[in-house]
Amino acid sequence: MTDFRNINYLKSGTERQQKAFEVLNENLILQKLSDFDATLIGTIPINIDIASSDLDIACYWKDKNHFIEIVNKNFSEEKDFQIYEREINGSVSVIATFFVNDFEIEIFGQNLPVSEQFGYRHMLIEAAILNKYGEDFRRKIIELKESGVKTEPAFAQLLELKGDPYQALLNFKII
């Protein structure tokens, strides 16, 4: 399976993945967040992105105010920069969004190791499902996403999972 902690896999990926690699590297985005175990997550790494998909970067902070300070220092001058806090899954989350070149970037930080954050866990499970079910399944996910269905509900729908799609996906066992 792909090592998603190192973005070098993007260099040999789709055209969009290669562009994402260039934007992240040329702007030193992950390097500027290196104190926070910054990890690219979401749909672009696993090739189920659509035109409106952003670059999601998960971060682990131990000191929320320091994280906010670093994000502001490095990205507040970027186009349409916003930063806010929200409670998600019982955890205080700091979210920053902005645009660089043709990409919207969302930085998502929690006081929780990236490997334990739902976004990262969902991506790993989705990658394994895509690996098992193949190209037709991947295309169906993209079709659902293009029709307005969010990623996890699209997987839940195709896999016929019941209940909360976000939790059901975390509980899904790949045989």
Structure characteristics:
175 residues, alpha+beta, Beta Polymerase, domain 2, 2 domains, five-stranded mixed β-sheet, 6 helices, 42% helix
Shape category: globular
CATH names the topology of the largest domain as Beta Polymerase, domain 2
SS strand fraction: 15-25%
Count helical runs: 6
pLDDT below 50 for ≥5 consecutive residues: which ranges?
A: none
How many structural domains can be distinguished in the coordinates? 2
Structural class: alpha+beta
- The share of residues in helices is 40-55%
Taking Cα atoms only, what radius of gyration do you get, to the nearest Å?
16 Å
CATH class of the largest domain: Alpha Beta
* Span between termini: 16 Å
Strand order of the largest sheet: 1-2-5-4-3
According to DSSP, the number of beta strands is 5
Q: Main sheet, how many strands, which sense, barrel?
A: 5 strands, mixed
The CATH superfamily label of the largest domain reads Beta Polymerase, domain 2
CATH architecture of the largest domain: 2-Layer Sandwich
Give average pLDDT, whole number: 95
Protein name: DUF4269 domain-containing protein
Organism: Flavobacterium macacae
Would you kindly provide a brief summary of this structure?
It holds the Pfam family DUF4269. With 175 residues, the chain is α+β, with helices and mostly antiparallel strands. It is built from six helices and five strands.
What does this protein structure show overall?
The chain has six helices and five strands. With about 180 residues, the chain is α+β, with helices and mostly antiparallel strands. It folds into two domains: about 5-115, Beta Polymerase, domain 2 (2-Layer Sandwich); about 120-170, no CATH class. Helix 4 (about 120-145) crosses helix 5 (about 150-160) and helix 5 (about 150-160) crosses helix 6 (about 165-170). The longest helix has 29 residues, at about 120-145.
